[in-house]
Each structure stands twice: as C-alpha cells, then as structure tokens.
Amino acid sequence: MFEALTAYDTDDRGQVGIGTLIVFIAMVLVAAIAAGVLINTAGVLQTQASDTGSETQEAVANQIEVVHGVGEISSVEDLDGSNPTHSEDLVDVVNLTVMKSAGSDSIDLSSMTVQYTSDSTDRTLTHAATGNGLIADTGTTGELDGDATSDTFGTTAVAGENDDNELISTEDRVTITLYISAIEAGSDTFGGGEYDNVGLKGGDSATVSLTDQSGAQFTYGISVPSTFGDKSVVEV
C-alpha cells in the first residue's frame, strides 16, 4: 500500500509489513540450520575419508615377507616302533622365517591370522598362547618350537631386539611354526590312526596366507621336494 505523507510529498514510500519480516527471519534461520548440517556432514565425511585413507595405506604398506621356509621331516626310523604315527617319511612341521617390509609400521603377530590351504585341508590359525605345544614325533606334551597346535601357530624371535610376537624394525626376524600333521589331522591328540601318514608327503604343496592387524596379506606357497633322501629338514 502506498500513500502520500503530505499534500506536497509526491514521492512514493513503501511500508514493510510484519509478515514480510517473519518470512525474512524464517529464511535466515533455515539457511543457518542448513549451513550447520552441511558443515557437520562435511566434517564427518572428512574424518571417514581420513580413516579410510590411513587404513588403505596400512593395508598396502604393511607387508610381512617370508624370507625362508623349512620343513622338518618326521622319519619312521625316529618313531617309537611300538606305536608309530605313520609308515612313511613326511614333513610334519614347517618353520617360516618372516620380516616386515620396508616402510611398514610395527606388526603385531599376535593379532595376525594364518590361512592354511592344502589339497585336503583349509584351516584358519590364530596365534598360540605359550605353553600349549606338542612334540610331533612322540605325541607327548612338551615344547614344540613356538607352541603350535592344530588351530594355532607359534612365533619365536630369532634376530633383532623384538619380542616373539612382534616385528618392529626391518632387522627383526621371527619364525612362524606350523604344526602340519596336527593341522591336516584336525586334532592335537595322537592315537587311533588320526596321524597315519598325515602331513605333507614328497611332492605335496600347500598355500599359507598371512594377514596382519591392518588387513595386509602375504601369500606363501609351500612346495615339498619329491624325495627327502637322508635329510632331516628340507627347504619348502
């Protein structure tokens, strides 16, 4: 509505109604709320992106490398003749010496999992608690290096100043022990024929996948020589 203020005032002037003012205030409030939501969402997305980037970087950079693999041969002549566990020579224990790759963060082996796959067995192994190892050749309770069982792997530090279950620097070396006969048999109890020719025979192969706490994975192929000769250990 426009009106002349005086008889001599020819300029038109507008009056702002209360309704227009309410609409304006409402628009400002909505804009402020929308801006707050956008800022909050942007912060959440930034945090998620940062976490995802860090985890991806760790998964790529944190690598465990196997520098040496040895299989221990269980020979029939070494067994108790009154109760032999198998009738032919085979690899019943595998020791893998590992290190962390250059650029990797510290690796906690106690949080690592080992996926063992052969022609007849597929088993996920976790880190062993100390003191629960078995001696493969005799079947008696004792100290197998690294305390490996049918569903656990053992770790033993062999170089560096690290503990048995960690890799801190690239100079550190840890031996991972896999109790092949127990893994293949699915049991830690001897007797009853479970261990009759259970293990990796000449020419057999298996795959071991090491997955650390960041999700980084390293795959190692175990390949047993076709013949053992008179050796007590073979490179695998």
Account of the 3D structure:
It is a single chain. A hairpin with a 5-residue loop joins strand 9 (205-211) and strand 10. This protein has two domains: 17-61; 64-235, no CATH class. 21% of the residues lie in helices and 29% in strands. It has two helices and eleven strands, in the order H-E-E-E-E-E-E-E-E-H-E-E-E. The chain is elongated and about 105 Å long. It starts with 17 loop residues before the first helix and ends with a strand. The longest helix has 44 residues, at 18-61. The chain has helices at 18-61, 180-185; strands at 64-74, 90-100, 107-108, 113-118, 122-127, 152-159, 166-167, 173-178, 205-211, 217-223, 233-235. The chain has 236 residues and is an alpha+beta fold. The strands form two sheets. Strands 10-9-4-5-6-8-2-1-11 form a nine-stranded mixed beta sheet. The chain has a two-stranded antiparallel sheet with strand order 3-7. Pfam families: Flagellin_arch-type. It is found in: Archaeal flagellum.
Lay out the secondary structure:
Blueprint: H1 18-61, E1 64-74, E2 90-100, E3 107-108, E4 113-118, E5 122-127, E6 152-159, E7 166-167, E8 173-178, H2 180-185, E9 205-211, E10 217-223, E11 233-235
Keywords: Archaeal flagellum, Cell projection, Cilium, Flagellum, Membrane, Transmembrane, Transmembrane helix
Pfam family, one: Flagellin_arch-type
Subcellular location: Archaeal flagellum
- Largest pleated sheet: 9 strands, mixed
Query: What share of the residues lie within helices?
Result: 10-25%
How many individual β-strands? 11
Q: What ranges have pLDDT less than 50 throughout 5 or more consecutive residues?
A: 78-83, 131-146
Distance between the termini: 97 Å
How big a fraction of the residues is strand? 25-35%
Order of helices and strands: HEEEEEEEEHEEE
> What's the overall geometry?
elongated
The rounded Rg comes to: 34 Å
Strand order of the largest sheet: 10-9-4-5-6-8-2-1-11
Total count of domains: 2
Per DSSP, the total helix count is 2
Oligomer: single chain
Overall residue-averaged pLDDT value: 76
Main structural class: alpha+beta
Protein name: Flagellin
GO biological process, one term: archaeal or bacterial-type flagellum-dependent cell motility
Function: Flagellin is the subunit protein which polymerizes to form the filaments of archaeal flagella.
Organism: Natrinema versiforme JCM 10478
